[in-house]
Amino acid sequence: MSAKMTKEPSGQGRHAVDAPPAAANAVHPVDPRLLVRQQGFKGYLTESLRKLRSGELGSLPVVLGLAIIWAIFQIKDSAFLSAENLSNLSINIVGTGLIAVGIVFVLLLGEIDLSVGSVSGLSAAIFAVLNVNQGMPEWQAVLVAIGSGALIGVVQGFFFAKVGVPAFVVTLAGLLAWNGLMLQVLGSSGTINIDDSGFVAKLTSYYFTDVGAAYGLAAAAVLLYFLTAFSDNRRRARAAIPSRPTSEIVLRTVGLAVPTFLAAYVLNQYKGLPLALLIFLAVIVLLEFVLRRTPYGRKIFALGGSVEAASRSGINVARVRISVFAISGGMAAIGGLFIASQIAAANQSAGGGNLLMNAIAAAVIGGTSLFGGRGSTWSALLGSLVIGSISSGMALLGVAAAVNFMITGAVLLAAAVIDSISRRTQKVSGRA
Questions:
Q1: pTM for this structure?
Q2: Number of CB atoms found within 10 A of residue 21's CB
């Protein structure tokens, strides 16, 4: 048996082998930066459609879902979209929403905090005991309560980040331990009523009745968005890097202005701008700024993307993890104070029931990924609106709580499925 040898032409053996021709139906990727530079707004529209096809859905599913939910309940009961019901809805979601903001930070790491419900109840109990039973000034009791929640987060974060105990186990233990401590703090009475005229009680009962307050907030929000986007554009243009066309910024600003001023109009038809909603929005904006525009926020996203890569880049993984759990505990404490404000008391049922599940569900339904590395504090607002709207609509229709739980569970499952499919689609398209 002999092998036939083929002599290679002189000088050709050192050349790289030509790549095989591309398939006839192959899709050649287009650099979005070139698309924007060449086509302006049309290029951005094309890029947005490409992102949707590749699984980057953003907040689109939850916005569409919320619109469908509101339409269904409005058809069933015309009182659903009344000014009074929407105003009450905006207050009812604040306690759970604030806790969900903390959950967003933990989910960005790809972890979970199961103790937030118990922490919120314990913090409310600490405030009530210090202020009502011990006579401590209200503002001091509030600071101690919030500080206690943050300290609990530090302790749990330490066991997770330093000792290596899984966050699920640490916070599950916390769920039991902090609930028991809350019962111990409240004592035999089990309920401590807070001062109806105090600051904490007014968190959910005070309204800015002047119509200028709601409209002023709407105008400030729209103006802040426009100035921020315009300033970013100028900075990117000076650095000779791709930037959004001015037409898109104007269109986005108008798109924000319409629902914002409509919300202000609706609120003014009842009692005005609720203090609780104002604080909730302020917290969301502040913490979103921390996530998007600070080195600390970028470290959180980096850890959610890859812990090993983040560690190799010099990020102190343990410190960031502990701080995130501290934020979660602190936000749980603040949410607990708002929940206590609604019932003007701290009792044994605080932090129990479906509070934990609703807080986690709000973050996930709002668009924060369960796999880490993708999410926003605005997810807490959107998710809380979905859950709160379902509860409000069911209450108006007189539907049993059991049905409410089943529907909320189905919505949560749908959000998780969308997140999973979106992530898989991005991997296939090479964008994950």
A1: 0.86
A2: 7
Question: What is the CATH number for 385?
Answer: 1.10.3470
Within a domain: 230: no
Q: Report d(CA 345, CA 357) in Å as an integer.
A: 22
Please state the separation of Cα 65 from the chain's center in Å.
16
**Please, which residues bridge with residue 191 across strands?**
347
What is the number of structural domains in the chain?
1
CA distance 42 to 22: 28
Mean pLDDT per 10-residue segment, the chain (432 residues): 45 47 48 48 63 63 89 92 95 96 95 95 95 92 96 97 94 95 88 90 94 95 92 83 78 92 95 96 96 94 90 93 97 96 89 88 88 88 93 88 83 80 66 52
For residue 202, the enclosing domain spans 60-209+271-417
Q: DSSP per residue over 281-333, as a string?
A: HHHHHHHHHHHHHSHHHHHHHHHHH-HHHHHHTT--HHHHHHHHHHHHHHHHH
Is residue 98 within 8 Å of residue 276, measured between CB atoms?
Answer: no
